[in-house]
Design a protein that fits this description.
Two copies of one chain form a homodimer.
Chain A: H1 3-13, E1 18-21, H2 28-36, E2 41-44, H3 48-62, E3 66-71, H4 72-78, H5 80-88, E4 93-99, H6 115-120, E5 125-128, H7 132-147, E6 153-159, H8 160-164, H9 184-196, E7 200-204, H10 211-224, E8 227-230, E9 236-239, H11 253-260, E10 265-269, E11 293-298, H12 304-315, H13 338-348, E12 353-358, E13 376-380, H14 389-399, E14 406-411, H15 412-415, H16 421-427, E15 432-438, H17 443-452, H18 458-464, H19 473-479, E16 483-487, H20 490-501, E17 507-512
Parallel strand pairs in A: 1-2, 1-3, 3-4, 4-6, 5-6, 7-8, 7-10, 10-11, 12-13, 12-14, 14-15, 15-17, 16-17
Antiparallel strand pairs in A: 9-13
Helix pairs in contact in A: 1-2, 1-7, 3-5, 3-14, 9-12, 10-12, 13-20
GO molecular function (chains A, B): acetolactate synthase activity; flavin adenine dinucleotide binding; thiamine pyrophosphate binding
InterPro entries (chains A, B): DHS-like_NAD/FAD-binding_dom (IPR029035), THDP-binding (IPR029061), Thiamin_PyroP_enz_TPP-bd_dom (IPR012001), TPP_enz (IPR045229), TPP_enzyme_TPP-bd (IPR011766)
Keywords (chains A, B): Thiamine pyrophosphate
């Protein structure tokens, strides 16, 4: 058995049965092994940032890692933006990077690069296999690292000769480490603060914003008069009817500071102290008052359920119903507005939809109007590197076994980063409805520019404007085999959405905003 | 004066007057400075690998560095594939990466990354500015590094507060170091070998394949009965009438080994000993006989003209005419073939055209049929990371001041890596004619797969085939504002090409092969 065979068999034995790939010459023995060993679903992406972004979206829904297959250092580099985002989302990925044969590396052939150095910038675990005999064990360790709670990027670098040489040994799965135990003192401390203080914020992030943790946090808040919010940087929120009407800390620095100004204590549940996305002249980094105290109930690598249950127990907090989100909104009409679009999304989304939200500036207020939608999952850009909305939507559809409708609300500038995702959606016949918000500019940056100086001049606009020439998203989608249509009103957008929800295939709506 | 102003003024003073950009929030003070200081041409790319690839193409033609403007570590990561290629091409780029404000970095906001670590994997020079007062000097040093012969990637990391704080000082240009002097012993040694031995190959790469060096190498070869060839990995060859009919060492390992088998000595002119692109089972890494001796006349960082002139002097080699390339081919007709396409390109290309060749497997034999075309420059992928053909074509058109026709011969799979380039071509109204070779597969990999095993099965083909759904390059180009048409015969392709050569705007031909 060659190394590649032992690798594929070990991955399958460890429960990794989906491979997002864009292979090259050095990966051909791996590809050949896939032909001979049944059980691995292979999904091709036409650029590596699509590949890695799909693996992120897959993990968020499937809650188990997929593997990738990338080609040498530069192939890894192409996918690093979305690995950075996946790391921010704390997704688990077994990131396999084929590389030059061990003996060929000293010759510095063109694709030779510091693959290990690149991988370290976006991975929690990096290992280069050097012997076919050890590849199975290395793969089992990589899967273990990827599964380590709540999920990690584990990069396994695979020189071509380690794939093709004989001597491969299939390794048994290695169970991941348990999350570090919850600190009883942290629970007691949080209970004391919640008991004694007013103006306490319980800030949720990571697994703390999933359904069960929300209910438990609400139970704590109801018993103590504290407030519950979600971190702005959140990869996956459970939302809609049956879930808490959580709001995120606003993106804008001034609004965030104002929102948090009244809190004296912040109890962090898998969250960090909230800071600005960027530093701004004359502004602090922190969004919370300098007088406020931060208390860590759980770090991101700990189980929030156990801790919140402990806190409820400590407080003797009674069970409580979640607040009712009110009446489901009606679809709005007329010229598109953020509020109208959000209402229409809430009005029309099927039960159990998945929203992949890379709406950037347009979508900042979407939450308020979608609390009363049916239960759904809302996915965000968690690392700040634009270009994950479309790949995450694609991977999420596969992570949900194509059984749930995915709605990708997508800013146009960010969409151009990884538009190749549409082709994979068409190839795999995925139930993804994409709404591209076509405003023909990097609107967020025009806002940021005005914070800096005055109105952007010609030179600045040459870097901020996407309108010359205008992008036709209908043509772009059609070019990759995805049906598409343009909408200029919310009614047109709603009609297109309704008809797309009846199809088991992707559809793109270009909404002119 | 703030830091950003001192940076822009220093760049202009140092002769850097073109900026390829995809900025974000942390770059807004730089963008604002560009509005206030005239003289910097700004070119927007809709994804960073387009931005860096354009800077590479620009350098190859303009022979002076442009700067880039990228957003934080992940923006750099997105552009690293083509920085890797630019490094392989030995292009000079002042690679400016905006980053978190110095005081904000410890807070680990989402876009915080190991920007320095990323940059080191693709740069010869990396520096993070930490004070506005020093930014001008840092910029002058970066330009110096980028201009260091034959060209280097100089990455200047620019924390936002270093841009916006006052105290900036404009720095005078710092001249780059002279190339290390040519080694007289190396010249004498080469002369002795050329004098005493048969079966000597003079292998040219880097600046050794430009026009003057070719003629000098031919003068040496004519006087000594040696052979002249170009390295396979070559970024920029002067070709056509008035230039030497140079062939490159073939890509295929067996063919390359056969081609080089008769040589006992290889004299390296800015080249390295030729090795395979990859290692293959049972094959050596080197393409030259183990008995052959390698002799370095010049390293890639030395001036080949000086050395070749010294060698001519040492050998008393007489001046000699370059061989006549024969009659210019006629345009071919019928179903597309590599030979027919090459002939038609040679038949129709305007004098002084620029070819950006990322034709991968289809174009391996193009040279033979294009020696008798008018004088032209031929650009290749020099780092092996696919996705540079379109960005390099775009940047080359700008590097040649839009005055020369650029013909981009482009494989479809590679084209999908950086198709956003077409939008910049439309925006800047560049004279680029793109011929996308649509075969709907990663043909090179199907070849490599058959080297490994047998015929690719269903799983392998799911990773190697681009035909389901088929890509429509006409739609994709139109979606980005570029006129396009499909051709199924060489005549149709020729007619479209001729009409595109009369336009000062981009045009894309989707050639079904």
């Amino acid at each position: 058995m060659n190394g590649a065979h032992s690798l594929v068999k070990t991955l399958l034995a460890s429960g990794v049965d989906t491979c997002f790939a864009n292979p090259g010459t050095s990966e051909m023995h791996f590809v050949a092994a896939l032909d001979q060993i049944p059980g691995m679903k292979c999904v091709l992406g036409l650029q590596e940032n699509v590949v890695t972004g799909m693996a992120d979206g897959y993990y968020r829904l499937a809650r188990k890692p997929a593997c990738t297959l990338l080609h040498c250092g530069p192939g890894l580099a192409n996918g690093m933006g979305n690995l950075h985002n996946a790391r921010g989302a704390r997704s688990g990925i077994v990131n396999i990077v084929g590389d030059q044969a061990t003996y060929h590396r000293p010759f510095d052939a063109p694709l030779t690069a510091d693959t290990d150095g690149m991988a370290r910038t976006v991975s929690q675990w990096v290992h280069t296999s050097t012997k076919s005999e050890e590849l199975g064990r290395d793969a089992a360790l990589a899967v273990r690292a990827a599964k380590t709670y709540p999920g990690q990027i584990a990069t396994l670098i695979l020189p071509a000769d380690v794939s093709w040489e004989e001597g491969g040994i299939v390794a048994d799965p290695i169970p991941p480490a348990r999350p570090p135990v919850v600190d009883n003192y942290a629970i007691e401390n949080a209970a004391r603060i919640l008991h004694n203080s007013k103006n306490v914020l319980i800030l949720l992030a990571g697994h703390g914003v999933l359904s069960e943790a929300q209910s438990l946090a609400w139970q704590v808040a109801s018993a103590t008069g504290s407030t519950v919010m979600a971190d702005y940087v959140t990869s996956h929120l459970a939302r809609g009817r049956g879930r808490l009407q959580l709001e995120r800390i606003p993106y804008g620095m001034e609004t965030a500071i104002k929102t948090l100004s009244r809190f004296e204590h912040i109890i962090l549940v898998n969250a960090k102290g909230p800071v600005g996305f960027f530093g701004y002249p004359g502004m602090p980094s922190e969004q919370y008052p300098s007088s406020a105290q931060l208390h860590t109930l759980t770090r991101p690598d700990q189980d929030p359920i156990e801790a919140l249950k402990g806190l409820i127990n400590e407080l003797n907090a009674p069970e409580v119903e979640l607040p009712d989100p009110g009446v489901r909104p009606y679809a709005a009409s007329g010229k598109p507005t953020p509020e109208g679009l959000a209402q229409t999304i809430a009005a029309l989304m099927p039960e159990n939809s998945i929203i992949s939200d890379e709406s950037i500036s347009y979508g900042r207020g979407f939450y308020k109007f979608t609390h009363a939608a049916p239960a759904h999952d809302w996915l965000h850009l968690a690392g700040g590197a634009i270009g994950d909305g479309m790949p995450v939507a694609t991977g999420a559809a596969l992570g949900a076994n194509k059984k749930r409708r995915v709605i990708n609300i997508q800013a146009d500038g960010s969409a151009m980063y990884s538009l190749q995702s549409l082709w994979t959606q068409a190839r795999e016949q995925l139930p993804v409805t994409t709404i591209v918000l076509n405003n023909s500019k990097y609107n967020i940056l025009i806002g940021e520019y005005t914070n800096v100086g005055a109105v952007p001049g010609d030179t600045a606009m040459s870097m901020l404007d996407l309108g010359n020439p205008g992008l036709s998203w209908v043509n772009l989608a059609n070019g990759m085999g995805v049906e598409a249509a343009q909408a200029r009103t919310l009614e047109e957008c709603a009609d297109l959405r309704k008809s797309s929800f009846n199809k088991n295939s992707p559809f793109l709506i270009e909404l002119m905003i």
